[in-house]
Design a protein that fits this description.
MDR_fam (chains A, B); alpha/beta; six-stranded parallel β-sheet; Rossmann fold; seven-stranded mixed β-sheet; 2 domains; ADH-like_C (chains A, B); Putative alcohol dehydrogenase superfamily protein (chains A, B); ADH_N_2 (chains A, B); homodimer; Quinone Oxidoreductase, Chain A, domain 1; globular
Chain lengths: 359, 359
């Protein structure tokens, strides 16, 4: 049962290191847009409040955080979630341990994943974004990736928007990243022919040797993306799982097969540009009756339970392999986030800030 | 029953005026890309051939013909249909009367619509693209428009791709054209709020006064398409029915509502450009989970019978009004086709080449 925030004995007050946003960002973010500050926190949910006090164990670095680092106008159609607040801890998915709770279904000691702060301890008041971790036998950090938001994104965007059929030709960009590595392996399980693009030869090797991609190319060393696609996918693309947008999307549009689906999960290449890339090949969608569809994971959390069981099974059976890029300490978080935008991470970028749930 | 092509008595040989393609086109087509030539034709299906000899009554001018006037490379992903053949009659939808037939379901005297030549008489060998006209009580020319390919395009693209719901905010570009005028009226029947754009004040008046659009604007006199959309559709767009592409599509993308659908039926603004317009606002489809889908009517002819009955009913009940731009004589066909690309036509562009089916 939930512990009460109203215990008589005094609650501990501890130091709480956090990553706060210093200023709103235009263009690409830098480490200097964030700073580490040290605050204190009472390790108890205030009386009368329904909330969960979480000790954060793993922070997730995800490209979409960039969007929340900017100041948006009211009604801006590009907004994904509310802007971060200057001087306050940034917010994202993470894994933690419950220290105190007045939530009826969460109790001290529970391991949880969901929306928390970029800090050592967070008083989570929007408890609907926290879920109990059901597979503690797997590495907890997986709940920032393959078993968390990126995994659910890969699963629901690929199957619900991409609608793959056995034998389909699938192209995945950012293919070794948190989402892409899962998409490629799900596509193989679904019986597709899968090609990935990534930004280094090391990542291309990972794609072929570790994740089972049928073919892969390094987009940085190709002079002509269209030629690379024609070489790796001579019969065209049935499903393009797009995480990058821009020139890669433009080349893929030219190369889609009749009735193809472009599942657009992100456009990381478009962050920080003064003017977005102009996509010139969109007219191809008429002749080929192609569907291009934007994805937001918020609409798919109802699939989570089914997804978690299926994915945990694949991991245990060795059908899905996970590559993480784990750095230690909350001080590493700003650089790890910035690294995403130049592709410095190899695999899912995680920041481990504590390995134990003891306060 | 079908008449036979093997009758003993001699068949008439008559003059056959036709519009032929003189040269393949790059950029915008001109009248000089076509010429009128006079040939002769035997008014009988050759012995042993399954075909239909049609006297053409109405030719349809449609933007998609532009695509067939160019020489495409093998495997060009933008191709909609085979290139026209230099020196031969151009091909498109039309209305005609059967003069002779060896097709089991068509007989001399039948009125038909479908794929025929831009000439006075055509020996139609691909008879699967001819259909009998079931509503002879309506003007025959309607089978080039509201009851033909453009009508079926409007109906199936709007309902199957646009998936309108009652109360939805619908935006239609090229809104007074052959397809747009039908879409707007179907949207009103479906209980939507409908705004159209067109290229002259005269057309804007038609939209509001004749087709029942709730609001409309002249895109040529607006300095900011986004501002025009915000003014006419302050709550955004649920369904954008796109026939123009380019800057209008870009502005509409910024203004889509969550879960909106962009049904892309054509991109007439993109014909004749050296380089296609670069669409910069595609990233909006992620935050708003918008679907952008290309349409080709070829996949929807199975809906024709249902469509024809429904549409004929709307016309008879006065729920759908038709505006045609009919010119007389096959000599007028090249100029009428060219006029589409500058928006010279008001309503569906038709060329009447004979009002009687007598040879």
């Amino acid at each position: 049962m939930a512990s009460s925030g109203g215990d008589e004995k005094a609650a501990a007050v501890v130091q709480n290191k956090k990553v706060v946003l210093r200023r709103y960002v235009t263009g690409l973010p830098t480490e200097e847009d964030m700073e580490i500050v040290v605050d204190t926190i009472v390790l108890r949910v205030p009386a009368g409040q329904t909330a969960v006090l979480v000790k954060n164990l793993y922070l997730s670095c995800d490209p979409w955080m960039r969007d929340r680092m900017s100041k948006h106008d009211d009604g801006d159609p590009t907004v994904l979630a509310p802007d971060f607040v200057i001087g306050e801890a940034m917010v994202n998915f993470g894994v933690g341990k419950v220290i105190d709770s007045t939530h009826p279904e969460l109790t001290a000691g529970d391991l949880v994943w969901g929306m928390s702060g970029w800090e050592e301890y967070t008083l989570v008041t929007q408890t609907e974004y926290l879920s109990k971790i059901n597979h503690k036998e797997l590495p907890l950090s997986y709940y920032t990736g393959v078993l968390g938001m990126p995994g659910l994104t890969a699963f629901s965007c690929f199957f619900e928007l991409g609608k793959p059929k056995k034998g389909d030709f699938v192209f995945v960009s950012a293919a070794s990243g948190a989402v892409g590595q899962v998409v490629g392996q799900l596509a193989k399980i679904a019986g597709c022919f899968v090609v990935g693009s990534a930004g280094s030869d090391e990542k291309v090797s990972l794609l072929k040797d570790k994740f089972g991609y049928d073919d892969a190319f390094n987009y940085r060393s190709e002079t002509d993306l269209g030629a690379a696609l024609r070489r790796c996918l001579p019969d065209g693309i049935d499903v393009y799982f797009d995480s990058v947008g821009g020139a890669t999307l433009d080349a893929a549009l030219l190369h889609m097969r009749h009735g193809g689906r472009v599942a657009v999960c992100g456009m990381i290449s478009q962050y920080g540009l003064e003017e977005p890339y102009g996509v010139r090949n969109l007219y191809c969608i008429i002749g080929k009756t192609v569907r291009v569809e934007g994805f937001n994971v918020n609409g798919y959390f109802h699939l989570y339970t089914r997804f978690e069981e299926e994915m945990a099974g694949y991991i245990k059976d060795g059908k899905v392999t996970v590559v993480e890029d784990v750095v230690e300490g909350i001080e590493s978080a700003p650089a790890s986030l910035i690294g995403l935008f130049s592709g410095r991470n190899v695999g899912k970028q995680v920041v481990a800030i504590a390995h134990s749930g003891t306060p």
